[in-house]
Write a structure and sequence with these properties.
single chain, 693 residues, alpha+beta, ten-stranded mixed beta sheet
């Protein structure tokens, strides 16, 4: 999704965590005089998340100059961006300067210049240049969504509404539909558009009848022209509709619902009980269940579809234990073999709709276990789930989630820690486990005493060992304070007290280690370590996003502190594992390839590849009480995936998935990846459909 780094990703959003910003602007385009004259000197837009206004986008035009002020804060963080665009006499941008900071504090100092046909730019990954021989569009790293209007103008005047992009790729504009909404001056006549080509998913936005930027939209997050805030829900629903229609088409085209029996021949099965692969076998599926396991090349009159596993490995579907699900990553998780996700907090209405679409077969997606998100009201609160202002309201929220069938409860940063014991007591009385962040001005020990069954994010535990009681973790301090970790004695009394309490109370740990790897070790211009195996297969914008730091690394001292902090985190997790504390593999980064990386990193904790396959499938099914999945056995759900190699010897084998069954619906990733701009990794297995033979 364009702009995915400066704003929350739909519904999880999915991080909400790695949001900085991508935007576009025109290098060469045609701007009509009539449109130029209709552009007001000042425009204001509201930034709205979960129906709550969290910031602004203000635009000022003075002659040939445009100034943009873009700022929002949700969950105690968000970007602050200022842009200056200079236009020539024909209205073409000849200079673009972007400054400020990203969601996680990385400093922004980006510049673009066009002199004749010579374009040059500087962004977080370094310097770039190109000689322009035809109209092209440059993709910025940190610009605001306002430039969508300029980009749209260029593409509307281009052949087939398509233009090449810099640094690479091609952009295409597609008109979706005309809509009218009420305004004080009468009905506002609008059109919605999809912009595709640079990222994994389309960017949806709205232009008015003068082709001026009116709104940027996702199912949860919107930027809309001031005065039209009451229409934000209706426009967000359009984004949801377009996303659903896109994935419905993909499902119709690529989901294989074979009739009768399906047999996967010539495969070895990963057995979580022995931590080894079986001899060559075959697996028969009928409906959504595994019905037989036989010899390697079984063929009978009843077998109607036969898939040749070619000696590969069949692995039970994996779990991402820390997701925030949305349409745009539901299918991608399935394609990566992640067939179950525990959703740790969401817009409840959006999540309900997504689950309905997945369960009805309209969309492909993992099986979702819902945690009821409860947050306390404050100036820093997250706007997902239910936001409460008293202990009584919090307890009512627990009951509400129980009535709706949620699995458990998750508490968040702005929750009053003093309410936790009563919340946990109520949840436990309803057979609901409790997990979450450590509330501000509290610590992990207090939450363990309150009855937490699990702690979320390793930094939430460690902060209790390095922060003063009055320091506020509702801000970016909960990340930047990790610089203090190198001075922490991990053999100290406070550290051992917390670990002892976790052992005594059987408290599990959901560390989201991959986030901490990216936060602490990523540097501008350097490829994220965890993406090396697939970055070249990704769309151009996605590749650039994997070369940007999250935190602002001000100097060499901070650089060293963050690197040493990551080492301290690894040591802490090793100590937890050695004491028998259960580690739960979750990402908070959307899952799919990131879940592979999360498991891969756990090898540094002493897990073998086979132990990690078991941890990521069988153990998590057992932890959540899912008796119908986690292993490949007769009677179990047909949730598994095929890889050519042997992941018990080299865990990287799970990154090359050739086939996935999600409840007996079969997907071949390399058929589907091009729809996301991803270059396929391998080949589809041979499929012999024997219906009627």
């Amino acid at each position: 999704m364009l702009f995915s780094f400066l704003m929350p990703k739909p519904s999880n959003m999915k991080l909400y965590i790695f949001l900085f910003g991508l935007s576009l602007f025109m290098i060469q385009a045609c701007t009509s005089e009539s449109n130029k004259s209709s552009v007001p000197s000042e425009e204001s837009f509201s930034v709205i998340f979960g129906s709550v206004k969290v910031g602004h986008l203000n635009v000022t035009r003075e002659g040939s100059s445009i100034s943009v002020d873009y700022d929002y804060k949700n969950n105690g963080r968000g970007p602050t961006i200022k842009e200056t665009i200079k236009l020539d006499s024909e209205g073409f941008p000849v200079q673009w300067d972007i400054a400020g900071n990203t969601t996680f504090g990385n400093s922004v100092d980006e510049h673009f210049s066009l002199q004749g046909q010579d374009a040059s730019w500087t962004d977080a990954t370094g310097d770039g240049s190109a000689t322009i021989s035809q109209p092209s569009l440059y993709i910025t790293q940190f610009g605001s969504p306002y430039s969508l209007g300029i980009v749209a103008e260029a593409l509307l005047n281009a052949p087939d509404q398509t233009l090449p992009a810099l640094p690479a790729g091609e952009l295409k504009l597609t008109e979706m539909e005309a809509i009218n909404i009420p305004s004080d001056a009468g009905e506002a006549k609008l059109k919605t558009y999809a912009l595709t080509g640079a990222d994994l998913n389309p960017t949806y936005f709205v232009l008015d009848e003068d082709k001026r930027f009116f709104a940027f939209m996702t199912p949860e997050f919107i930027i809309i022209r001031e005065g039209f805030e009451e229409e934000e829900e209706a426009i967000r629903q359009l984004a949801e509709k377009y996303s659903t229609e896109r994935y419905e088409k993909i499902q119709e085209q690529f989901a294989n619902n074979y009739e009768g029996n399906i047999r996967i021949n010539n495969v070895r099965l990963f057995d979580p009980n022995t931590l080894a692969l079986t001899e060559l076998a075959s697996v028969q599926v009928h409906g959504d269940r595994i019905t037989r396991i036989d010899g390697p090349n079984m063929v009978s009159d009843d077998d109607q579809t036969v898939i040749d596993g070619a000696g590969g490995t069949l692995i039970p579907g994996l779990y991402d234990m820390h997701g925030h699900m949305a349409d745009d990553d539901a299918l991608l998780n399935v394609l990566a073999g992640v067939t179950s996700v525990r959703d740790m907090g969401n817009d409840n209405e959006v999540l309900d709709k997504l689950i309905q679409k997945i369960e009805s077969g309209v969309l492909a997606g993992p099986r979702i276990t819902r945690m009821g998100f409860i947050e306390g009201k404050s100036q820093f609160n997250n706007n997902n789930g239910l936001v409460v202002e008293s202990e009584e309201e919090a307890i009512e929220a627990v009951v509400s989630y129980s009535d709706k069938g949620f699995y458990g409860i998750k508490l968040y940063n702005s929750m009053n820690g003093d309410w936790a014991p009563a919340i946990v007591e109520k949840a436990h009385s309803l057979n609901m486990p409790v997990t979450g962040h450590v509330p501000a001005f509290s610590n992990a020990n207090a939450m363990i005493r309150a009855g937490f069954d699990e702690l979320t994010h390793i930094n939430q535990v460690i902060l209790g060992w390095v922060l003063e009681p009055d320091e506020d973790t509702r801000t970016l301090l909960r990340l930047t304070a990790l610089q203090r970790l190198p001075d922490l004695d991990l053999n100290s009394v406070p550290v051992n007290e917390t670990l002892d309490m976790m052992v005594e109370n059987k408290v599990a740990m959901d560390p989201t280690l991959t986030i901490h790897e990216v936060l602490l070790l990523s540097r501008n211009g350097e490829t994220w370590q965890g993406t090396h195996d697939y970055i070249e297969n990704m769309p151009s914008n996605e590749q650039r996003s994997y070369k940007v730091a999250l935190a602002n690394i001000a100097n060499e001292k901070e650089d060293e502190a963050y690197r040493l902090a990551y080492d301290q985190i690894l040591t802490t997790l090793n100590m937890m594992k050695d004491r028998g504390i259960l580690i739960l593999p979750g990402t908070d980064m959307g899952g799919w390839f990131t879940l592979h990386r999360e498991l891969e990193l756990y090898q540094q904790l002493g897990y073998t590849p086979a132990e990690l396959l078991k941890l990521g499938s069988y153990d998590m099914a057992e932890y959540l009480g899912h008796e119908d999945r986690g292993s490949i056995e007769q009677g179990m759900l047909a949730d598994f995936f095929l890889v050519p190699g042997d992941p018990t010897k080299d865990l990287k084998a799970i990154k090359t998935v050739s086939m996935v069954s999600r409840g007996g619906v079969f997907y071949y990733p390399d058929e589907i990846y091009p729809a996301f701009g991803i270059t396929p990794f391998g080949e589809k297995p041979v499929v012999n459909n024997r219906i009627g033979n």
